[in-house]
Design a protein that fits this description.
By secondary structure, the protein is of the alpha+beta class. It has a domain of about 120 residues: SH3 type barrels. It is about 65% helix and about 15% strand. The chain contains two helices and seven strands, in the order H-E-E-E-E-E-E-E-H. Helix 1 packs antiparallel against helix 2. The chain is rod-shaped, with a radius of gyration of 63 Å. The protein starts with a helix and ends in an 8-residue tail after the last helix.
Length: about 230
């Protein structure tokens, strides 16, 4: 998203520059810059008079010149070309504004540059749109993933709640099982005690019966026998 915003800012800045260039269609003229205004060309001399040697027979119309000095009395201006050639040209052949041919050339150059910049802007705009579409697609994918994650989280929470409930039930069952086991152990102990007591009682009863039988036998034997005739 930050990359997309940066590209949009660059795009708007470039649009502003192009609009400025299209409106101006020419560069600003420096105060010390002049142009040859003659339609054919102007001769450049080594001095400020027609008697001085010609340095350049005909400086082409529209040639950009740097003004070095001016001899108003003689009507000549000392100039320097972009190539570094210095000389004097009659002031009447010099204009502070470029001629129509130069303006047209500059306008065509600026227009070509503007067209190229427009093409670059279109390419950047297409790229921005493509990135925007890609970002929208990614956002849709992220939203879908978020929904899926939320659903999974709800399932996990539900399962976790069920697991906690199950764990609590298991804990209760384990507690109940321990209590039942303790009760069973207690019942087994009581059963064993009852069995021991019952066995002891039966032993005592058996011993009592045996003892009673012995006593009864002794008693019978100890009685005097009567005669059958009496």
């Amino acid at each position: 998203m930050n990359n997309c915003s940066t590209r949009k800012r660059k795009f708007l800045k470039l649009v502003s520059i192009i609009l400025t260039n299209v409106l101006l269609l020419s560069t600003a003229v420096h105060a010390a810059t002049a142009y040859v205004s003659d339609e054919i060309g102007a001769p450049m001399r080594s001095g400020a008079s027609n008697a001085h040697r010609i340095v350049n027979l005909a400086v082409p119309s529209g040639t950009e010149l740097e003004i070095l000095s001016e001899d108003k009395a003689a009507g000549f201006t000392q100039v320097r070309t972009r190539r570094g050639t210095e000389g004097w040209i009659r002031t009447e052949h010099i204009s502070l504004q470029p001629n129509a041919k130069e303006l047209l050339r500059r306008a065509n150059s600026n227009l070509g540059s503007a067209n190229q910049q427009i093409l670059d802007l279109r390419a950047q705009l297409d790229q921005v749109n493509s990135e925007y579409s890609s970002t929208q697609s990614e956002n849709s994918g992220l939203k879908a993933s978020l929904v899926n994650l939320q659903t999974e989280l709800d399932n996990i929470r539900r399962i976790s709640t069920g697991a906690l409930d199950l764990a609590e039930e298991n804990r209760k069952m384990a507690t109940l099982n321990e209590r039942l086991r303790a009760e069973v152990d207690s019942l087994i102990t009581e059963k064993n005690l009852l069995q021991d007591n019952l066995q002891q009682k039966w032993l005592l009863i058996g011993a009592g019966l045996v003892l009673s039988g012995l006593l009864l036998g002794l008693f019978i034997k100890s009685r005097p026998r009567r005669s059958g005739w009496s």
